[in-house]
Amino acid sequence: MNKNQTTLPLIPYPQQINFLPGSFQWTSKTLISINSNLKEITLFLDSLPDPIRPSITNEEKDSQLKIIIDPFMRNEAYHLSILPDHLELIAAGAHGIFYALQTLLQLILAEHKPEMQLITLPCLQIIDSPRFAWRGLMLDEARHFQGIQTVKDLLDWMACFKLNVFHWHLTEDQGWRIEIKRYPRLIEVGASRSASQISGFLGKKLNAIPHTGFYTQEEIREIVQYAAERHIQIVPEIEMPGHSQAALAAYPALGCTGGPYQVSPHWGIHSDILCPGKPGTTTFLQNVLTEVLELFPGKYIHTGGDEAPKTRWKSCPDCQKLAKESNVTRINDLQTILTNRISNFLNIHGRTLIGWNEMLAEGLDPEAVVQYWVGKEKTLLKHIRSGRKAILSNFSAYYLDHSYEHSPLDKVYQYEPVFSQLESSLYANILGIEAPLWTEFVPNRARLDWQIFPRLLAVAETAWLDPGKKDLTSFHQRLPGLLKQLDAKNIGYALLSDANPPVYQRLSGPLSLVQAGKGQREG
Ligand code: ACM
Ligand code: ZN
């Protein structure tokens, strides 16, 4: 092996690297033109420490960072060449250029120490493109509201690791977090609860500390814009028909019994869900979504659909009436009726519905995308084999709220998300993978950082790099360089000794799913 052929401090690792002789000296005298009007370059320059921030030139020909647009390349693909006297970035457009710059930034920052004025970069050519088009992180802000700064920081890290979908879980039994102008009580009533359950999923102990928070539409627009600048699509989730008790507390007429309801202080699955038999429910949902569509320009809207017990529907005259009119014999089918109404509504507006895999049923609108988290793989395979689309978030590997005893870093890294039974001709129907962070037991930033990092890096590499090229030993060689970058931003990630606990500690893994997990670093 040539002595240059080392493992580069990059996560996700590029698909192909060709090492070349020589090196490029990166200093504050490196010349860069910003004439191209690519905001991506400005963002890149802003991310560099002062002593190695390059000089700006107005002469395109003097620029040592050459940007070449090749419309025949795939959307997110890029080539990055580091040559002795200049760098070359080739992509089909801004998205690929952005990723080339993220790769360059990781290389520079991995070498950087405070006050350092020169970074030596090895000459090479990187040829790169993602395995999956959908590379997601989900944040539940309903159980615990985290706020704009945390969301922006997460979007920055997502961009760094080439993740491109932020799934924003905004409504729940325990809180409604998005301003809807037509229904002010969703915030006035639905955004606050009186207490939170602190005893794990099995106990009912409450802490008596009120919890509140929501995003105004103006703040949402700011975050959507911030994400777009980083080539991240935000997929909002408005849950229906289950996990909707905060909406019911605000508008009790939407429930089967008419209430009263409270914004729940308890976690878990709640019986009071939206009543599909009340004509007002569909109108309400469509009106809410009309405002949501104005705020979120992306193609996909998530409508939940998980964990919706039909207890109330069974004894509700309005639900019975709808069942009769629709000729359905099983009350469960009312969920499909509601989902299809909303899916049609979204289709008319040029959007596509995504829902958790519990919504899968005969008669589901074939346009709907299923996000798989738990349950029979067989049902999902059938859905995919009939030509429909899926996103994979297997809860035994990708739930970032799970303890490290249950989901150690190395297990997350080595997990292969695509079912082995799936025919390779159908791989294109798997849009990609996504790691959710549910926040029942994530009350603050320190805990959030600890749950997400470094596991998100393992997910990001699986999302990007072809499975045959993944390598756990190489991942561990590269991690310290990236953890140093997390350190520089004071991210309290789980140390490797915590992220890969010894085997005897892992025995408590299954139990740690129902406990209020411990964790997060001191200080
Ligand atoms: C889920 O974890 N209930 C989607
Ligand atoms: Zn009902």
Explain what the structure shows:
This protein is of the alpha/beta class. The protein has 2 domains: 16-128, Chitobiase/beta-hexosaminidase domain 2-like (Chitobiase, domain 2); 166-439 and 495-519, Glycosidases (TIM Barrel, Alpha-Beta Barrel), CATH 3.20.20.80. 33% of the residues lie in helices and 17% in strands. It has helices spanning 39-46, 94-111, 148-160, 185-188, 217-229, 245-250, 279-295, 311-314, 317-325, 333-348, 377-385, 395-398, 409-414, 445-452, 455-464, 472-488, 496-499, 503-506; strands spanning 16-26, 31-33, 55-57, 65-69, 78-82, 87-91, 119-128, 134-140, 165-169, 192-193, 211-212, 233-240, 300-304, 352-356, 369-372, 390-392, 430-437. The strands form 4 sheets. The protein has an 8-stranded parallel β-barrel with strand order 8-9-12-13-14-15-16-17, surrounded by 6 helices. α2 (94-111) crosses α16 (472-488). The chain starts with 15 loop residues before the first strand and ends in a 17-residue tail after the last helix. The structure holds acetamide and zinc ion. Zinc ion (ZN) binds next to α9.
Short summary of the structure?
The protein is an alpha/beta fold and 523 residues long.
Radius of gyration: 24 Å
The number of domains? 2
The distinct bound ligands, ions and cofactors come out as: acetamide, zinc ion
> Biggest sheet, strands in spatial order?
8-9-12-13-14-15-16-17
CATH architecture of the largest domain: Alpha-Beta Barrel
